[in-house]
Prior knowledge:
- By secondary structure, the protein is α+β, with helices and mostly antiparallel strands.
- It is 30% helix and 25% strand.
- It contains ten helices and 20 strands.
- Strand 19 and strand 20 (369-374) form a beta hairpin.
- Helix 1 (12-23) packs across helix 10 (383-394), helix 2 (60-79) packs across helix 10 and helix 8 (298-317) packs across helix 9 (319-327).
- It is globular.
- The structure holds flavin-adenine dinucleotide.
- Flavin-adenine dinucleotide (FAD) is lined by residues 8-14, 31-34, 39-42, 44-48, 50, 171-172, 199-203, 207, 224, 268, 345-347, 375-381.
- Residues 8-14, 31-34, 39-42, 44-48, 50, 171-172, 199-203, 207, 224, 268, 345-347, 375-381 line the site of flavin-adenine dinucleotide.
- This is L-2-hydroxyglutarate oxidase LhgO.
Amino acid sequence: MAKRIGIIGGGIIGVALARALSARGDEVTVLEKEQRLAQHQTGHNSGVVHAGLYYAPGSLKATLCAAGRVALREFCAAKSLPYREVGKLVVAVDESEVPALNEIERRSRENGVPDLSRIDGVARLREIEPHVAGVAAVHSPHTAVVDYATITEAMASDVRAAGGSIRLGHEVTGVRLENGRVRVLAESSEHVFDRLIVCAGLQSDVIARFVGADPSPKILPFRGEYWQLAPERADLVRGMIYPVPDPRFPFLGVHFTRGIYDIVHVGPNAVPALAREGYRWLRVSPKDTWESLRWPGAWPLAKKHWRMGVDEISGSLAKPLYFRKARRFIPELRMPDLQRTETAGVRAQAWGRDGALLDDFAVDQVGPVTLLRNAPSPAATSSLAIADYLIEHHLAPTGAA
Ligand SMILES: Cc1cc2nc3c(=O)[nH]c(=O)nc-3n(C[C@H](O)[C@H](O)[C@H](O)COP(=O)(O)OP(=O)(O)OC[C@H]3O[C@@H](n4cnc5c(N)ncnc54)[C@H](O)[C@@H]3O)c2cc1C
């Protein structure tokens, strides 16, 4: 017998999951608070299909990114959606960064990143990126770019074609567990489901509280602001140029990405957002900010990362500081080449009581409710594989008890 399954969240993960469930015959309803799909992280990201270079071998990020990349490439091919393998160079600018680059190379090989190569010497680097500076790099030729909002819409068409329902403008305001079932209260409707899956991104901890789940991890919203290269200077970057990331921090540092529409994005940075959906500095929610400040993990986190925080905030407010970081990779870059944009995304980064930022994807189960509690990058890349993982590990097959 088909099950009635509710999904909160019309980002790429909620919709990928709805697609997989409706294909197996479940009666699926997606509840999304916005008037369109993919209005938060999914529609405000770098559009990169990661090949799995950084993630701890054996982690969910490593395994689901590898499977998700292949599945996404096949999906785009089947739907004739743009998918371009522009390739990525992770660059050690000087000798001090080489040991960390070696570790990225080791992880990449263990994660089975396809056709990865090690490049030493600036002359060889410039065969791939003619304007780059550096002493060594790893090159991943199959790292690609896509448009995740368009992909989400294509997945949604499959959901509708299989009889699933996608309700836009339906903000969930309460969830009650009743005799093994779930009653979901939305602004203007009420629904009863056999199972509920929460893929609510920046609001995932709010919904977790509705069902009485552990308040930890909480969501710490981190904004990523984008700059871009002036169109006449976009030829400074062919594909993607990334720094060797700081392993203590879950974000990747200043990088250059030639997106699917041929704009070269620079960024995103990582600054604390003053509201869950704080896409710019002036968008402040006293409630969200106060909740973050009084979280037990606030001081341990501030103590550990304050230098990085000051550095990122300064770069956000003062162009010369950001420019200096970017120019390390491309010495020909001039200040006017770097243009500020209005584009920004807010990352839903899960944060424990002890102040630690959760690294891996994380899922909780409360009775019939499955909560996706941490799905940061590369979760868009991994979306189809995350859907399969949730079904295999958290949702019994149709007909089973
Ligand atoms: C700046 C930035 C750059 C990134 N770059 C990449 C990248 O290049 N590659 C990559 O793989 N990943 C990247 N990511 C990560 C990726 O975008 C996310 O991991 C992914 O989009 C998560 O999808 P989601 O469906 O969980 O969340 P979301 O897309 O945030 O969707 C959650 C949805 O839930 C809805 N919702 C919330 N509360 C309610 C409620 N009460 N009722 C109804 N609906 C609700 C929201 O409106 C939203 O639409 C990036 C993220 C950011 C922010």
